[in-house]
Amino acid sequence: MQKIKQIWQKIDPFSLQVRLTIGITAAFAIGVGSIALWTTWKMQQILIDGHKQNIEQIARRLPGDVEVYSEMFSLEIGLQKAIANRSTDKTLIWVKDKDGTNLGENLVPNDVAYTKLISLMRSPLRTRVYKIGDRYFVVCGKFLQVRGQQLGLLFVAQDISYEQQMFSSLVQSLEIVSLIALIIITIAIAIYIKKSLQPLRRISQLAETISINDLSQARLHLNRAPTEVKELARICDMMLDRLSEAWEQQRQFVGNVSHELRTPLTIVHGYLQSVLKRETNLTPPQREALETAATEAESTIRLLQDLLDLARADAGYLHIHLESLVLNDLVVEVAAMAMQHTDRIITLEAAYEQILVETDRSRLKQVLINLIDNAVKYSDSHFAIAVVLDLKAQSAIIHVCDRGLGIPLSQQHLIFERFYRVDEVRNRFTGGCGLGLSIVKTLVDSMGGSVTVRSKLGEGSTFTVTLPSAG
Fold this sequence. Notes:
This protein is an alpha+beta fold. The chain has three domains: 16-181, Beta-Lactamase; 211-318, Helix Hairpins; 323-468, Histidine kinase-like ATPase, C-terminal domain (Heat Shock Protein 90, 2-Layer Sandwich). Helix content is 56%, strand content 18%. The strands form three sheets. It has a five-stranded antiparallel sheet. Helix 8 runs parallel beside helix 12 (436-446). Residues 424-429 have low confidence and may be disordered.
């Protein structure tokens, strides 16, 4: 029962497979049901018509029989003998005069159904079927005339209960067989439609799982698919080709621009720093302008370096030099560097005296600096930044915790995207262009680790970096 419930919960009533299955099954059921109903009605009519013809033939011939017997006997005896001659176990004949008195009959005594049937028959009638209790009778009635004399009303009835019961049993059996056949056909249709829609599922799975790195290799191979699906797959492959070419052009453009601009900006920054050292030759407004220009140049150089690193990572050229090092010492070094450039307190908590990791020293320093800088920008200045080190299941874990504004849950999965910023207005004052966390994720992934975030509005955020342990 539990398995059936689980299967039922997986069924999507709005899916194409369910709709096609229901539609085809409904059309099949309506068509077959209509044919079955018509066939059943026709078979019943044939069954009844056979009995009707039989009793109508008896009703036509009985007056002639009465005439023959009345030549040898009296009219009453001749009538009774004619009725007895035409009667059978299932064929009932009786004649009533104007007063309703039976002139002749072959009825079975003490039969309630026969007695009730006789009481219902009072006038000439068209041949029709009567149901008395659970029994069925075909009855016809007409005036009985012998030698021009009207003797009364002649009624001929035939018991068709056995045939009707057999027919009903046959119909019930057909209904059961039809229901079973409908279920089997429905299952077969569902399986066939599921297999037919498999190429569409492959297209959907490819679209769902494809990433930037897979654009050049991802292709659809649907050799046995229907022609329409093959055409859709061909168009999807062409679209993937165009996307791959566009992405490659964009990557090359970003890399080339970053590389070409970084050198002249570095030279400009160097000249600005050189000019700033000449304190005696500068007025305060000139110094302020040069310091602003130097700061902006330095910020632009960092941006270009980040773009260049991302371009190299996309191209697979990002150099990672893995080595074993003591994580505690590296974090202390980074914290000391960060406190030189800010008045914030950075605390360090370590569960072990030495945690060895297999990583790239300079790249990990870049990751930690970005995370600490991010925590400084977006947290309350009255609270310290906490860096917590731990070791679990052969993995070194670094937590960078702040007591800041927090990140909305709906946006937490987007913060590692390039150029994504939670609050555009806030970032005008804090600086940055939305590449810091993207760089962090790219570098950590390249070193074989992972980075996640856990945040709550008004309480702060915790960024967790997990790296392979060398111990």
